[in-house]
Amino acid sequence: MLIAGRDFTDEIVEQIREAVRSTGHLTRCALSRLVCGWMDWHGFDGRAKEASCRAALLKLERRGVIELPPAREVSFETRTQAAAQPEPAWLRIKGALSKLSGIALVVVNGDKALSRQWRVMMRVHHPLSDGPLCGAQLRYLITSDQGILGGLSFSAAAWRLGVRDEWIGWSEGTRAQRLSMIVGNSRFLILPTVQVAHLASHVLGLASRQLGGDWQQHYGERPVLMETFVDSSRYRGTCYRAANWFDLGLTQGRGRQDRARQELVERKHVFVYPLRRNWRKLLTAPLDLPRLMPSVRTQPPADWAEEEFGRCRLGGRLTQRLMTIARDFWGRPLANIPEACENTTKMKAAYRFFANDDVLFETLLQPHYAATEGRISKLDEGSVVLVPQDTTSVNYSKLENIDGLGPIGTTAEGAQGLHLHSSLAMTVQGVPLGFVDAQCWARDPDEFGKKAQRHALPIEEKESYRWIKSYQAVAAVQKRNPQINLVSMGDREADIYELFAEALRDPDGPKLLVRAKHNRELQDEQERMFETIQAKPIAGYHLVKLPRQKNRPARQAKLAIRFAAVTLCPPQEKPQLPRLEIRMVLAQEEDAPEGAEPIEWKLLTTLAVDSFEHACEKVAWYTQRWGIEVFHRTLKSGCRIEDRQLGHADRLEACLAIDMVVAWRIYHMTKLGRDVPEMPCDVYFEEAEWKALVAYSTKNPVPPERPPGLREAIRMVAKIGGFLGRKSDGEPGTQTLWRGLQHLDLMTEVWRVMASP
């Protein structure tokens, strides 16, 4: 079960029970440290997140899943002793801000003397006293050359805050994962004896510049946004307004502990202040959830939907609904949601599912990633798995008043939609095994047209970082499966210097094969990269088959092959990056047909290329990159994803995740039918499906006892969808299969009715 963003598996729960049973004096703190170790639950600073773990353990206890050790009594003796200390003589000053010099914020955490001063001051002068403060916290004294002026503190942000979450554009799942990037200004006090105009807003300005570095030093994570609450019955928030904080509106008056929704506290104004220029992009970025690992099942999955989605971290009922929707989408791939769901009850349940805040793109694909890795791990030792990655846009311009979409064209006011970047694992023969990674996002219209500023940004803040993130996902799979050789591939857009630096950092990591775009400078060479490889002698000729694309017919191309080892120099604006030793292969078509554009591929790779055979092998692997483009075309035309009618971008993304797995399955079935045609078709078709299919195709109401081969069944389905099956037609494609499956679903329903007693 998923609690606090962590997957408490049956094994973890049993470990907790055993630890409580076997250890007589185990405290809750000690138990939380154990659980953090088992689950690798640590913060950015490397320390165990004990407080978050204890909160999760309490939720498990309330649900009756575990029984915790008795809670220990807390002694308040130290605080009582501190309260008895005399109040110091505070600074008295009145005048202009210019009379004060050396105004600074001093962190008191870890300094007992300063901390004691802060507590006494807050206890005497602040209406909320000195605490307790929640979660991670930093406390400051406001000092000057004249003396102490006041104090303030920052601590964990509010768990739920309607006006803030709506302003940011958070879903439930994103809020839970990104909340640590917000800090709350929980205390702010200027001593009543200090009456200096504009001092409060000046201090807030100091805090906005200093807090980020201090917080990162203490907790390993740099905050993105500050928030605070102003009691409207006492104050107007003038200093926050003067410091350019945003007033988002009023709270509902519930407070932290108001589970009964009694709303007994005063409503407060919510103020926020961004600490980073791209704060919204950082707070709403796609979730980087801990990956589900492949697991050994005690029982085989009931069907493909359970295999691909059954381990989703959504809870029992939502996961069952997810699998039902996936089966419906597979049965009627060309249908809209109401038509695919067959009846009103299922249709309403599907729309409620997509409207749920926990139903996110990344969450839905997690179990599929694990299933894909399971298929990869079962390949023979030494097998090569190609992982092409590519980006496509999904156009939702036909939908009106949809929040969360962004520009996908050349202008901010033009076509609106989402961008999808996917990494599809496949064998060297082109059989797709599933996705290793996928990212979906909408561009911020406010950032559109600022391409000229990209050179000033680190690679982590650029959209092109998606290539490195996908490579890192492949690297994680490679680390867990050292017996398999993974190769990440990309087109010219993936020619990013930092990507090659990432690939060469670990010699045991996955290899990289990318088509070159930039004519880079080389070490110890007078010419640049393209001129250097062109000057190399032709090592031989290699034939490749080019598939049909748009108006270009399929043909065979004769490529002249050149290869060389080169050392790349870093770009001039990034001299801190290392020089990179890589291999380059140039494949140029000679004697291209009249009217056809000659093929010219300049390939960069971290793979060994020491012979003509090695170079031809890399060229052959690169031709499989077309598979990811075929998939994206199948996704758009087969699933009609651009026709989905849902009210928000988050819901469209969730629906897209299911459609991606359905599209992958039809693509996988097509390829498998060509590679292993004699495989029984019941690996893909249920008994009622293949019997209805054979009965319709043969016009014989009595089906055979054994299912036909997969290739034969695929051709039957394709013929229903319009495939003619002539000798010159080759094998059926995905589009005729989509149409055939649509009709097969109806045939199967009729077959079940006729075959029932």
Number of beta-strand segments: 21
The biggest beta sheet is recorded as:
10 strands, mixed
Number of helices: 24
Distance between the termini: 41 Å
Mean pLDDT: 86
Q: How much helix is in the residues?
A: 25-40%
Structural class: alpha+beta
Approximate strand percentage = 15-25%
Oligomer: single chain
Outline: globular
Over all CA atoms, what is the radius of gyration?
Answer: 31 Å
Low-confidence stretches: 76-83
Structure, explained:
By secondary structure, this protein is α+β, with helices and mostly antiparallel strands. It is built from 24 helices and 21 strands. Strands 12, 13, 14, 15, 16, 17, 18, 19, 20 and 21 form a 10-stranded mixed beta sheet that branches. A 7-stranded mixed beta sheet has the order 4-5-6-7-9-11-10, with helices on both faces. The protein has a two-stranded antiparallel ribbon with strand order 1-2. Strand 13 and strand 14 (416-427) form a beta hairpin. Helix 20 packs across helix 21 (649-675) and helix 22 (687-698) packs across helix 23. The two termini are 41 Å apart.
Précis, in short:
With 757 residues, the chain is of the alpha+beta class.
Relevant terms:
38% helix; 7-stranded mixed β-sheet; 24 helices; 10-stranded mixed β-sheet; alpha+beta; 757 residues; 21 strands
